[in-house]
Amino acid sequence: MCSGGGSDNYAAQARADETARQDRIKTGTADVNKKFEGFNDAFYGQRQQEYKNYAEPQLRDQLKGESSSLAFNLARSGLTDSSERSRNEGELQKQFSAGKAEIANAALDQSNQARQRTEQNRSELLAQLNATGDAASVGSQAVNRAGLLASQQSFSPIGHMFSATTGLLGNAARAGYYDNNAPGMNAYTGLFRGNSNNSGASRTVKT
Amino acid sequence: MCEPTTATLALTSLGLTAAGTAASYAGAEKAKKAMDAAAYAEKLRQDKLKAESKVMFDASLGESGADVSNKNIGDAVAKRDAATDAAVQEAVPSSVGSTTGATSKTVSDESATRTSAGRNVASIYSKNKNPLSGVNDVNVNDAIRNGRYLQDQGRVANFMAKSAEVLPIEMDAAKEKGSGLRGVGTILTGAGSLVGMGAGMGAGAAGDAAAKLAAEKTLMDGALLHPVLGAKSPASWYRMFGAPQPPI
């Protein structure tokens, strides 16, 4: 008897289709994981180092400016050989070290963010694979996304990391804001006219 | 051609009905076995997937909890501390000159002390902050790990659901197994019923009448005479005229 052969074939076909779908998803998952296996600790460590390479020169550049301003302000104040100099150098070191530590932490944060972005991409690809069972399409997208993720992403420049806490740190103009005794750039204003910013206070310039 | 008797018909009916029932039973058994096999195969598939899911859950559970998190936070903080400790060590070169040509020892000693203190303060600030950042690091890693497990569990759940969706189709197909035998059984049972009904409602009686007539013909043709009439007295004659047949 042959009755029932049709539905039997249909059931066998349905089971074979489902088995094949599951196999495609397993294979696709393995493919995606293989494409993403390059995103390991070494990769994220490299991201961390790249951020430091980017940010630390900016900090050093700022440090140079601050050091020059300090030397200038100390000399102008006649405090070059003084405890005030040491105090300011200590403050500069503290701010520089804190800035470097901040960059080191930010570098780790950058590496964490890269890890999250990578995982998000991987997760989206797998979700797509589970929904469609289309391993070929997802595999090709995995290649593209992995390439994009591996390429360098832009970083935001660091802000100004030094603050003029002592009045001698910072540029000459700012020094005037924080320390009433420091003339700052105001020293060179009003040479040939009265200084209206000094609220009537007279200033004698020796010649 | 010999006519079937009621007994023959009844026996035939019984035989057909029994054969039909047996065929139907065999067909039903075949379908039941096929359905059982399909259900069992699906159970094995589901059990395998459930086991896979349990392994993943156990692994996920093993990587979670306060004890594991505390250890991970400790590791993350240590990693942050190492990074910031290395960062704060760099000394700032002094760009301040001296009015006397060389910086006095008193000033340079104090500068060394203060810059060292500055590094220490920066290190302390970092070490105070790193435990907070370390918790964030662990949270990020936990989220990634849990997301992966969740996705893997979702895949297994999807396999279970989709596999289960095929089962009704397989059950329908399994029901069709033995349908040929069941068809034969139905035909045989039906035929048995018909024969049985025939035996009960006429075919058997006709057979019996024919048998009786044959017996009477034997009487007429044979040696048995009516004791009074002295002639052959076929029973059918009496019956034909509606007269009671005299006892022989």
In short:
The complex is a heterodimer of chains A (207) and B (248). With 207 residues, chain A is mainly alpha-helical.
Throw out a few tags for this protein.
heterodimer, A: 207 residues, 5 helices, 68% helix, disordered C terminus, B: 248 residues, mainly alpha, 6 helices, 81% helix
Topology:
The complex is a heterodimer of chains A (207) and B (248).
Chain A: H1 5-35, H2 41-77, H3 83-132, H4 135-150, H5 172-178
Helix pairs in contact in A: 1-3, 1-4, 2-3, 3-4
Chain B: H1 6-62, H2 66-88, H3 105-175, H4 179-201, H5 203-221, H6 235-241
Please give a structural write-up.
With 207 residues, chain A is mainly α. Chain A has one domain. Chain A is 68% helix and 0% strand. Chain A is built from five helices and no strands. In chain A, helix 1 packs parallel to helix 4 and helix 2 (41-77) packs antiparallel against helix 3 (83-132). The longest helix of chain A is centred in the middle third of the chain and has 50 residues, at 83-132. Chain B has 248 residues and is an all-alpha fold. Chain B has helices at residues 6-62, 66-88, 105-175, 179-201, 203-221, 235-241. In chain B, helix 1 runs antiparallel to helix 3 (105-175) and helix 1 (6-62) runs antiparallel to helix 4 (179-201). Chain B is rod-shaped, with a radius of gyration of 53 Å. The interface between A and B is large, with 57 and 66 residues.
